[in-house]
Amino acid sequence: MYAAHFGLSQDPFSIAPDPRYLFMSERHREALAHLLYGVAGSGQATGGTGGGFVLLTGDIGAGKTTICRCFLAQIPPNCHVAYIFNPKLSVPELLQSICEEFHIPLSPAAAGTPSVKDYIDALNAFLLQSHAAGQSSVLIIDEAQNLAADVLEQLRLLTNLETNERKLLQIVLIGQPELRDMLARPELEQLAQRVIARFHLDALSPAETGQYIRHRLGVAGHAGALPFDAKALQRIHQLTRGVPRRINLLCGRALLGAWATGINRVNHKVVNKAAAEVFGAEPGQASGPTRRRTAYALAGLALVATLSGFLLWPAYQERLATNPTAASVAQAAPAKTPASSPPAPIAPLAPPIENLQRVWPELPADINSAWRELAPDWKLPARGADPCQTAAAQGVQCYRASKLTLPLLRQLDRPGILTLQAARGPAVHAVLVGQSDQTATLRLQGRLHRVRLVELAQFWHGDFATYWQAPPGYEAGLRDGSTGKAIDWLGTRLSLLDGGPAAAGAGAPLTLDAALRARVRAFQRARGITPDGQPGPMTFMQIDSATQGQAPRLLTEPQ
Description:
- This protein has 559 residues and is α/β, with parallel strands linked by helices.
- The protein has 20 helices and 13 strands.
- 41% of the residues lie in helices and 13% in strands.
- Strand 3 (136-141), helix 5 (149-158) and strand 4 (170-175) form a beta-alpha-beta unit.
């Protein structure tokens, strides 16, 4: 239809859940962090108590399914997962579905129609066996607002399956806002008290709406100026209220309308006409016979567009085959994020995927070259024989870590230096500035190179370095009883995540005591850090990332 008109290789605003179009806003990242924070305690290796419910709610089309898919991708391999997407079930049907998802066979003694007890006995035996093998189990229920009261009560009873040390089953409930209202009922108070983490996924902000549209167009192959003007973007956010699914419906119809009228850029008038067809008449717009005539006209245009799309598509494919550069995406400029405001960089135009071996000869063996490449992200001068000494003069430290993982880097969400080592030859250093589920973006002499994570992982063994600006008053090796601005910063940020106290009392400074260390350990377990309760640089950086701090962020790439 309108793809060739706007230089697109496919429809960028399909409502199908294509993982290539995944867009993680700050709200989505925070929601994912809450899910991981709640579930991390269920792992035996973390030493957590586990059990209880984790709750994620959001309006229709807000991106709950997107979060669920990211969540499933980050669950460790030693964790069994049962996913229930149709919860309109009776108690026996639910238990049967759970056993089937966990691949639990029933005891041969359960002849005939299995009872509730048969299912629970089989589930308990499976959970105990998994626990003995150092494995954990998570049950995820989507559209949980459709659960009946007796089914919810049965789920609560499942959290009673435990050993002397820990609960055996973690349950994640994902649903629409009415799920929160359900759990507020007096008869479900016992279940509500077992919710250990909850998050409500809000819609996108006006700025995020623009980033979302730009991101999807970039994935679909668009290069150049955005085909929506500023007033159109404002109107899109106003009409859709920042809900991703509504944005897709409106933007797709607006591009179709622009194509049908022969214009190259969508303005607010085109958006209003598209909204009338998709959502119904807005205040001040036509209604009655006029609206019906408009609807008939748009329907006719849609039919013409569909037929024209089928006729034009072979010619468009032929043009792409004879001119490969028309299908490639322009290379994005290096991101420079001011340290004065929380950045959320989006890579609207991603470079094509390259073979790491082609980039390798250009990677520096001297890590100082990589430090200088990384310096502009922190607004540091990219000069001097010792970049770390130059950074220290600006109040910024160089931090080095080893034995990290690619998921931990994505969770840390800040640019840094990867040390790569081939079987032969010296180690080289690559500046990581972006990461997705499948690819990583490296910056070399101001140019971006996108490589596959699978290939990168062959040469990266966990060594990572980055700049770090410690909170005021921070000292290495904070001891029990420590107070000061760094401890106050720690308590305030943790309170945003776990709902705990930000200070000991009115006007009283916070102290690094046993209670605060326990909160630090819980956060560390959730973020994959060694849970020693000692707030060091990695813990401070992870807290900064989880609370939308001021450090530079990784580019968000297409999938």
